[in-house]
Design a protein that fits this description.
The complex is a heterodimer. Chain A is of the alpha+beta class. Helix content of chain A is about 15%, strand content about 45%. In chain A, the strands form three sheets. A nine-stranded antiparallel beta sheet of chain A has the order 6-2-3-4-19-18-17-11-15. Helices cover about 0% and strands about 30% of the residues of chain B. In chain B, about 15% of the residues are buried. Chain B is an all-beta fold. Classes of the chains: A alpha+beta, B mainly beta. The interface between A and B is medium-sized, with 23 and 13 residues. Strand 20 of chain A pairs antiparallel with strand 1 of chain B, so a sheet runs across the interface.
């Protein structure tokens, strides 16, 4: 397996967005691309990442291989890569180590690292194709701000989506608060748009702590999509451009 | 009082 990405910053941002939820994960390499699925230890949330092969500058994978990686170790290695460096990832069939090569844009600096891989027994979950009742698209910076603002007030947030608005409400020890967003009427910048597609109104409660973990993915995409259905896990998606891939989180709801 | 569910009750293990 060998793959080369022009910008190491993408991998660095992906890692930042998942390393607080997951400690070890299998990076699954196949001819289609690189993917990862992992749950947090309490099985409340799940991360699903896909990088399509066509998003790479070069991608070669003769047969599927899983690279079991400790994310703290990978973070240490990626700290040695500049944001604008290209990154080449290599692994052989034995699958006991992975090789990382970082090259500066001017090609005058080359650094190489080898990471020991581990055997990870991970449970793969089948996520059914779902027709969600409510889909909200909003700026990821707005999502991050709401989660961090409301997170200081309480542990859970009630998300209510209607045709007219999406409302985030918190009820905590010191008091309560809410933020309500209406779909944008005037659109200056596509990245500032709030869009709501609704089959039926949804009103659900989630842990703010997890929503805040997911907000770490905000640097990956200008917009975020929240998909909700009653008594079903919330899906939060950050897309890396059109053809590149995505990072999705799933969060189990609080239920009666 | 609402309690936290887990994903295992919604998604099947492959």
């Amino acid at each position: 397996f060998e793959a080369r990405l022009t910008q190491a910053s993408l991998i660095k941002k992906i890692l930042e967005a998942i390393k607080d939820l997951v400690t070890d994960a299998n990076f699954d390499c196949s001819p289609e691309g690189l993917s990862l699925q992992a749950m947090d230890s309490s099985h409340v949330s799940l991360v699903s990442m896909v990088l399509h092969a066509q998003g790479f500058e070069m991608f070669r994978c003769q047969r599927a291989v899983s690279l079991g990686i400790n994310l703290a170790s990978l973070t240490k290695i990626l700290k040695c890569a500049g944001n604008d460096d290209s990154i080449t990832l290599r692994a052989d069939e034995k699958g006991d180590k992975a090789e990382f090569v970082f090259e500066s844009q001017s090609q005058d600096r080359l650094s190489e690292f080898e990471l020991k891989l581990m055997d990870i027994d991970s449970e793969h979950l089948g996520i059914p194709d779902t027709k969600y009742s409510a889909i909200v698209e909003m700026p990821s910076s707005e999502y991050r701000r709401i989660c961090s603002d409301l997170g200081v007030m309480g542990d859970t947030v009630r998300i209510s989506v209607s045709k007219e608005s999406v409302k985030f409400q918190v009820d905590g020890d010191i008091g309560k608060g809410s933020v309500c967003l209406h779909p944008s009427s005037v659109v200056d910048k596509p990245t500032e748009v709030v869009k709501i597609s609704l089959e039926e109104p949804v009103d659900m409660i989630f842990s703010i702590r997890y929503l805040n973990y997911f907000a770490k993915a905000a640097p990956l995409s200008d917009t975020v999509t929240l998909s909700l259905s009653k008594d079903f896990p919330l899906q939060i998606e950050f897309k890396f451009g059109e053809q590149m891939g995505y990072l999705r989180y799933y969060l189990a709801p609080k239920i009666d | 009082m609402k309690s936290q569910s887990t994903l295992l009750s919604f998604f099947e293990t492959k």
